[in-house]
């Protein structure tokens, strides 16, 4: 099943109802597809922590503009940031 979630927020906003709803609905074996990493997290540290949490729950994370990293893990994302 495909679900699309959208939030309108600024970088200062920590309350993101659609993201919170999405995170609560994801289950082991699901795949989260995001257009860009900055749509998921406000900064690299937050992104790493969230991807870690999702991976630990058995959820695959794919970022469409990072096609060279088809399935993100903390290690693959750290390597990517290291080379930027």
Which key terms come to mind for this protein?
84 residues; alpha+beta; Rossmann fold; two-stranded parallel sheet
Widest β-sheet, arrangement of strands: 1-2
CATH architecture: 3-Layer(aba) Sandwich
Write down the secondary-structure element order.
HEHEH
The radius of gyration computed from the alpha-carbon positions, rounded to a whole number of angstroms, is: 12 Å
The total domain count is 1
Amount of helix: 25-40%
Helix count, DSSP H or I runs of 4 or more residues? 3
- Strand segment tally: 2
Secondary structure topology:
Layout: H1 17-25, E1 31-34, H2 44-56, E2 60-63, H3 74-83
Parallel strand pairs: 1-2
Helix pairs in contact: 2-3
What does this structure look like?
The chain has 84 residues and is of the alpha+beta class. It has one domain (17-83): Rossmann fold, CATH 3.40.50. 38% of the residues lie in helices and 10% in strands. It is built from 3 helices and 2 strands, in the order H-E-H-E-H. The chain has a two-stranded parallel sheet. Strand 1 (31-34), helix 2 (44-56) and strand 2 form a beta-alpha-beta unit. Helix 2 (44-56) packs antiparallel against helix 3. The protein is globular, with a radius of gyration of 12 Å. The termini are far apart. The mean pLDDT is 77.
Q: Quick gist of this model?
A:
The protein is of the alpha+beta class and 84 residues long. It contains three helices and two strands.
